[in-house]
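Researcher: I'm preparing a figure for a lab meeting and need a structural model of a single chain. I don't have an experimental structure, so a prediction will have to do for now. The sequence is pasted below. Please return the structure as tokens so I can convert it later.
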Amino acid sequence: MSVLVFGHRNPDTDAICSAIAYADLLQQTTRPDAIAACCGPPNKRTEYVLARAGLPAPRMVMDVRPSAEDICRREIVTAQFGDSFHDSYQRMQAADLRAIPVIDDARKVVGVLSVLHLMDLFFHDEGDPIKSRTVTSCLQKIHDVLGGSFQHVIDPQQRDELLVMVGAMSAEGFTDRMKQFPAERLIVVCGDRPSIQLPAIEHGVRALVLTGGFRLSSGLVELAKIRKVSVIISPFDTLNTTLRIKSSQFIDPVVDTDVVTVPAKASVVEARATVERSAQPVFPVVDDDGVLVGLSFKSDLVNPPRQKLILVDHNELAQAVSGAEDAEIVEVLDHHRLGGGLKSMQPIRFINEPVGSTCTLVARQFRASGLEPRPAIALCMASGIISDTLLLRSPTTTDVDRDVLAWLRGLCPVDLDQYAREFFEIGSALRSSTPAEVIGEDCKEFSEQNVRFSISQIEETGFDLFWERKDDLRKALEDFATRQRLDFSALLVTDVVSNGSLLLLSQESEAWEEINYPRLDRCLYSLKNVVSRKKQLLPLLSRLIAESRA
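Model: Understood. Here is the structure written out token by token.
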């Protein structure tokens, strides 16, 4: 199973660019199976970055909990109605399986066949002398199972309910016994015994099987043609020939058609609930049309493999892709505060440094590995740094960010200053998105002192569009907080020109009286020189919450 490199939910440019770049580095070094992923669509600015760099967007994965199709066995052995006991059993043995799905010509699942079902076919009605010798098959199937040859054959594909007789007694006794059964249903097995062969042919049996590789004389062959008796030559002795004829039976009567299937898209939890109530030995995994996708056992669903994750630009499970709590997190690369909920069974690589961008950390990993990123990846990392540090103007900017961006300048195929101006002019969320989309574009959830809240952030060139949509945005914040069951939601609108922000809240409490920033309107504050959610706004809100709880 591949390792997925994930940014946080509602990813911004740094989250997506760091995932792409780090996956690229891992593919060249320690993890060739690394795949960049995201749990939300790129925003307009990130789309611009990917288009300029010529890079595909990460794989969209909204939940990393495995589905039935993720863990099922894809190399599938199957059977069909009309297959023989022998062929089906050989396939099971080769695949070391005790049951296999039965499909039709369109690969839709119609049943399950188990070894126990086959044994019932082979040993059924042993106490009944007629039923125990009955074989439902066709001459072609018997020929194939024996690996023999036809000396003469009539209607080899015809489905017959045959009665097997072995010519091992005296010729007189055999002839008397043979005449007790309908000739058209009889298949007689004998060796090089003309005294058995002749009366069988004269009686007009359905087929005569000669063992040990013996063949009929030319005269008897002509008589067989006249009497319409098929003749099969078997390379085996009489005992093994008889057993193989019994194993040529069609599997149809013993296929369990009351089959439990598992939908391919079902989560492992849903699939487990389905199979736990069934005694079925294997469970076909099917698509929406019932077509076979794979095969699962109960053990596959009880202890499924865990998806391996590398988290970039976040370390809190509340901000991670859905299902991360059930995944195996093998590495974290981040520049935010340490949050709660992240645990591991074994030591993991955890890089968390106070720099302005996760892309800064990824670029440092490239340099430490002695690798020079290709121009597209260099531009991708530079974009993450430009976005998160506001082109090195944010208070979160460090000398490490400046050094790394200077290094990337020489590797990028564009002039970064001009590129940065274009980057910030593109994709105004307030111009192109609904209020709900604005709130969800770059949104992170937090918990402080048992208070759950979210902070969304957008960057704009001026506040004109905000004033036009202020009331709609407040309503969207209120709806989001209600829907997510949060105590409040906040939107930080940052002006990249003036390096200041407006803070809009879904609701206010007594805590906001101590905010020490001008209140412009209900639930609205002006935050001069505040541009960082991580380093400025989150500590401010955390302090206000703590003081209100004191």
